[in-house]
Write a structure and sequence with these properties.
Elements lengths: L1 E5 L13 H8 L4 E5 L13 E2 L9 E2 L1 H9 L7 E12 L2 H10 L2 E6 L4 E2 L9 E4 L9 H12 L32 E2 L2 E2 L9 H19 L1 H11 L6
Helix pairs in contact: 3-4, 5-6
Length: 235
């Protein structure tokens, strides 16, 4: 997959190239990362990319010309998706990451900056994405989150692909607890069922733990899971 980021802070993405399995995926050619600075497409000698807002107000607004020029200079692959990082966007979910990883060969991520961006920049994007109901100084961290979440889903990134199917949010329920040796640590013991060797009992316990944990921590997800699964039971 080709990942293109349009950002005024290209250095923010350098750490991704050496970040654990994500960095190894880039090194192996599973994904490739290209960062494009709108300043390189500014038309004036000062490489100006922002200006005061029409109608007045505090802060500066990202100009459309250098952003459009940066996007238009990026090679276009057949299955491309352009994402705009914005606190006004749709909340990011695991389903989005899976969809982008499976259906697209190229993601272009647009990072806002300053007070905001000229409204016309929105026309470049297929989707607007938010990572939460809060505001950051720019879209770089949200873009890095999307890159991390998508690349780890690409074939070959994670050694045991099956583990991606059982993790939190893969099917609405949160993941069950995990334990490893020692069996007892500071008066905290591994549940006996996990040491029983009874795979059927282990599977049932894990399913029960997923439901219980989701019900207690994320009742909104639990309600959605009940509706999707047709499970109307309480308890």
């Amino acid at each position: 997959m080709r990942l293109d980021v349009v950002s005024l802070a290209p250095e923010a993405f350098t750490p991704l190239l050496s970040l654990g399995v994500i960095g190894r995926a880039f090194a192996a050619g599973i994904a490739e990362l290209h960062v494009h600075n709108p300043r390189d497409h500014a038309s004036d000698r000062y490489r100006k990319v922002d200006d005061v807002p029409y109608g007045g107000g505090a802060g500066m607004v990202l100009k459309p010309e250098p952003v459009f020029a940066a996007v238009e200079a990026i090679p276009v692959l057949p299955r491309r998706r352009v994402l705009l990082m914005s606190p006004q966007g749709v909340p990011l979910g695991q389903g989005d990451l899976r969809r982008w990883a499976a259906e697209h060969d190229q993601l272009v991520l647009l990072c806002g900056h300053y007070e905001g961006f000229d409204e016309r920049i929105r026309s470049l994007a297929h989707e607007e994405v938010s990572i939460g109901d809060f505001v950051l100084t720019g879209g770089e961290l949200p873009a890095a989150v999307v890159i991390n979440g998508v690349v780890r889903l690409l074939p070959g990134t994670v050694g045991t692909a099956a583990c991606l199917d059982d993790e939190s949010h893969s099917a609405l329920l949160l993941e069950h607890p995990h334990y490893t040796r020692p069996a007892s640590f500071r008066d905290m013991s591994v549940p006996e069922v996990l040491r029983s060797g009874d795979h059927g009992a282990i599977a049932r316990w894990r399913q029960e733990q997923q439901q219980q944990r989701t019900r207690e921590r994320r009742p909104d997800l639990y309600s959605r899971w009940q509706q999707a699964s047709g499970d109307s039971g309480g308890g």
